[in-house]
Amino acid sequence: MARERSLRRRRAGVLAAAAAALALAGTATVAAGPPALASGLPRGHDVSSHQKHVDWPAARSKGARFVYVKATESTDYRNPYFSRQYGGAREAGLIRGAYHFARPDRSSGARQAAYFVRYGGAWRADGWTLPPALDIEYNPYSRKHKCYGLGRTRMIRWIRSFSDEIRRETGRRPVIYTTPQWWKLCTGNSRAFARSHALWVARHSARPGALPGGWRYWTFWQYGTKGRLPGDQNLFNGSASRLRIFARGR
Question: What residues are annotated to the active site?
Answer without folding.
Answer: 46, 135, 137
